[in-house]
Amino acid sequence: AMRPSVNLDFVCFDIETSNLQADFSIFLTACIKPYGREPIVFRADNYPEWETDRANDYKITRAIAEELRKHAIVIGHFSSGFDVPFLRAKMTKHGVEPLPLMFGIDTWRIARQNFQVSSRRLKNLSKFFDIGEKELVEGNVWMEAAYNGNKEAMDRIVEHNIKDTRSDMSHEVTVQYV
Question: What span, in angstroms and rounded, lies between the C-alpha atoms of 167 and 114?
Answer without folding.
Answer: 19
